[in-house]
Each structure stands twice: as structure tokens, then as C-alpha cells.
Specification:
The chain has 180 residues and is an alpha+beta fold. The protein is 39% helix and 13% strand. The protein has helices at 24-33, 40-50, 58-65, 74-86, 132-136, 154-176, and strands at residues 55-57, 91-93, 101-103, 109-114, 120-124, 148-151. The longest helix has 23 residues, at 154-176. Bound molecules: zinc ion (2 copies).
Length: 180
């Protein structure tokens, strides 16, 4: 049987700048305060979330949860995630990746979606300022800005550099030995 750690994707992205991942105990406490029962299914989702920082889809969380509660449906996971969003413990994001992402980071920030691997990376708001005043000239009122950038994440940039390096080494070898 795979261990719990083995099912967690190895690329952990977008943990960002001091993002608080809530402990299962904290989330259970929040549910009790809101007169919601702390069922074993809810606890399983809280525990999965505690081990999954960054941005996650319901499917990813479901895969982790069924390790401990094998008969739990994806639908139930969606419902519990929805409750967490309603309680303000998770942020729900539609980033054009084909699936809703659940984000532990509740502070205002932007995102970069990696074209190579689909990873979602937090971008601090102050790094991509949009002038609300300038936009207001169009006769609209802006209440908040959430940018979705497309590009390449750090891990894919590093991998790309490595393969470029080995490609150029290969080319040099071919050029260096005309008899090869
Ligand atoms: Zn990537
Ligand atoms: Zn985020």
C-alpha cells in the first residue's frame, strides 16, 4: 500500500510568502463554531489539506482523502471544500486551467500558470500593479484586481536550462569530432 507521503505530488508550488496552511484542529474548531458537525469525512479533508500546500483541485484532494476514507465521493469533497470557502478558510480560483483551484493563500495576490506543467504560482500583488484610477477613466469602477499570468514556473525554467545545456554539449561534441 502506498504511504500517505507517496501520493502527494512532489512539486509543491505557490506556497509563497508566509501562507498559513490551517491545521486540521483549527478547521475542526471553525466548523464547531459555525454549528457544523466535525464528521470523519470532514476531518479526512482537513487532514489532506494540511499536507497539501499551494493550489489544489478537488480531484487532487479527493485522491489524497480516499487513502483514509476509500468510499468518499468526489461530490462530498466538493461540498466540504465549498463549506471551507464559505467559512473563509480557502479561496476558490478559476484560472482557466480547466479545473477550479483551491488556495490556502487568502491575501490579495495574482497568479502565474505554467504553460509547461500547469503549476500555479502566487505572485505578490505589489509586483504587478494595475492603476484603478487609470481604468476608472473608462467609466467603470474597480473593486479588486486578480491577474492571471501565463509563463514558465521556476522548476520548468531550471529543467529547460538543463536540457538546453545538455543539447549544446551534445552539439559541441558532434562538431568537435567530425569522424564520429
Ligand atoms: Zn512548470
Ligand atoms: Zn494563490
Amino acid at each position: 500500500m502506498p504511504t500517505k507521503a507517496a501520493i502527494i505530488p512532489t512539486i509543491i508550488v505557490g506556497i509563497g510568502y508566509g501562507v498559513r496552511v490551517r491545521s486540521p484542529e483549527t478547521l475542526a474548531q471553525r466548523f464547531r463554531e459555525s454549528d457544523l458537525k466535525v464528521t470523519s469525512q470532514r476531518v479526512a479533508v482537513f487532514e489532506a489539506l494540511g499536507t497539501m500546500p499551494g493550489h489544489r483541485t478537488a480531484e487532487q484532494i479527493h485522491r489524497a482523502v480516499i487513502e483514509t476514507v476509500p468510499n468518499m465521493s468526489l461530490r462530498t469533497v466538493y461540498q466540504i471544500l465549498r463549506e471551507l470557502v464559505d467559512l473563509g478558510e480557502l479561496q476558490m480560483l478559476e484560472l482557466g486551467t480547466g479545473a477550479i483551484q483551491y488556495d490556502h493563500n487568502l491575501s490579495p495576490h495574482h497568479h502565474l500558470v505554467c504553460n509547461e506543467c500547469g503549476a500555479v504560482v502566487d505572485i505578490p500583488s505589489h509586483l504587478a500593479m494595475v492603476s484603478h484610477e487609470a481604468v476608472a477613466d473608462l467609466g467603470v469602477t474597480v473593486s479588486s484586481t486578480e491577474l492571471v499570468m501565463r509563463g514558465t514556473c521556476r522548476a520548468c525554467c531550471d529543467t529547460g536550462q538543463d536540457s538546453n545545456k545538455s543539447r549544446s554539449q551534445q552539439t559541441k561534441q558532434q562538431i568537435g569530432d567530425p569522424h564520429a
